[in-house]
Design brief:
- By secondary structure, this protein is of the alpha+beta class.
- It has helices at residues 12-28, 54-58, 70-73, 80-85, 101-115, 119-131, 154-162, 179-183, 197-204, 217-224, 296-309, and strands at residues 7-8, 137-138, 194-195, 241-242, 259-263, 267-272, 277-282.
- The protein has a domain at 215-309.
- The chain contains eleven helices and seven strands.
- The strands form two sheets. Strands 4-5-6-7 form a four-stranded antiparallel sheet, with helices on both faces. A three-stranded antiparallel sheet has the order 1-3-2.
- Helix 1 (12-28) packs parallel to helix 5 (101-115) and helix 1 (12-28) crosses helix 6.
- The longest helix is centred in the N-terminal third of the chain and has 17 residues, at 12-28.
- The protein is globular and about 55 Å long.
């Protein structure tokens, strides 16, 4: 491990990329998060997904199930939007919270349509270049600095087969590790970002009130406030999880104003506005192969040590 080691950040992509870009788009295009998906993706007009709001996608209360392997569901030549449109709602949108990779994949596709470019290009021009993070965060990492990935995605294979689907349709390679992100060419709203601890720290610091140079203070306040819909008992924020969520990895030493996110590969961020702290812990539990270890106790211990040290 070195200071510049690059990790597969997995689901940290949701908060760092998708939420951040949605906030940028809201300012650039006077975009309301309460507009429906079909106002931006006209091909979804009349479908249940079309009526979902952008806010519901970011708050994980859109009605989408937690996960489906789009690469195993897609018909030959079918667009990701069309594949998503064939997935049935698991519950009425806004009624409850179900953490969903699919919702953030769709949110990323909405951002691409609004911004008129691929998600990675928008992230570079709107976020990476203004913050000077060219060597710290990217969807296309320097492989010489990349922490090795796992050799066999056993847990995803198991989940796919449990749905009665063909795992052999998974796109080849292991970068990124998330199969749906690979299906979208390595660039998706749910996963696909790579980065260093320093890069994650710098971008996450934009969400501390008064610390950002990229995000407007009003947008930050909206992003880290508890979601109004479907968040009861889940403590969801816009793309973030609040410290009040049962069983989360925040730990007892963080305030209830804290918010964070974790990634399946072994990554996590927690920020506490009351303590003016951002804590980043990057590891790789999938190398050389997935081990079903619960990393939350380690994360809670890490946060406690950080709080005590400062």
């Amino acid at each position: 491990m070195e200071k510049g080691s690059v990790f597969d950040l997995a689901s940290l992509t949701k908060a760092l990329v998708t939420t951040t870009l949605m906030l940028c788009a809201s300012r650039r295009f006077s975009l309301s998060l309460d507009t429906s998906v079909e106002e931006h993706l006209r091909e979804l007009c009349g479908s249940w997904i079309g009526g979902v709001t952008l806010r519901q996608l970011l708050c994980h209360c859109s009605g989408f199930p937690a996960w489906k392997p789009l690469y195993a569901l897609a018909e030959p030549g079918e667009s990701p939007i069309s594949t998503l449109s064939r997935i049935q709602a698991e519950y009425e949108p806004g009624r409850r919270s179900v953490y969903s990779c699919l919702g953030f994949i769709l949110a990323g596709l909405v951002i691409e349509r609004i911004g008129g470019a691929r998600l990675d290009d928008l992230f570079t021009s709107w976020v990476i270049l203004p913050l000077g993070l060219e060597d710290e965060l990217s969807f296309h990492p320097n492989e010489d600095l990349l922490v090795p990935s796992g050799t066999w995605p056993g847990i995803e294979a198991q989940m796919t087969r449990e749905l009665g689907l063909d795992f052999r349709k998974l796109p080849p390679g292991n970068c990124p590790e998330d199969g749906n992100a690979r299906f979208l060419g390595g660039v998706a709203g749910n996963a696909g970002l790579f980065g260093t601890a320093g890069g994650v720290l710098r971008l996450a610091s934009e969400y501390l009130p008064g610390q950002g140079s990229l995000l407007d203070p009003e947008d930050v306040g909206m992003a880290i406030a508890p979601c109004r819909e479907g968040s009861e008992g889940a403590d969801r924020r816009l793309g973030w999880q609040g410290a009040g969520a049962p069983g989360c990895s925040a730990g007892s030493r963080l305030s209830r104003a804290a918010f964070g996110h974790s990634g399946f590969t072994g990554t996590s961020i927690w920020a506490d506005p009351e303590k003016d702290l951002v804590m980043v812990l990057l590891s790789h539990r999938n190398h050389p192969a997935f081990r079903g270890v619960d990393l939350h106790p380690l994360r809670r211990c890490f946060h406690q040590l950080v709080v005590e040290s400062v």
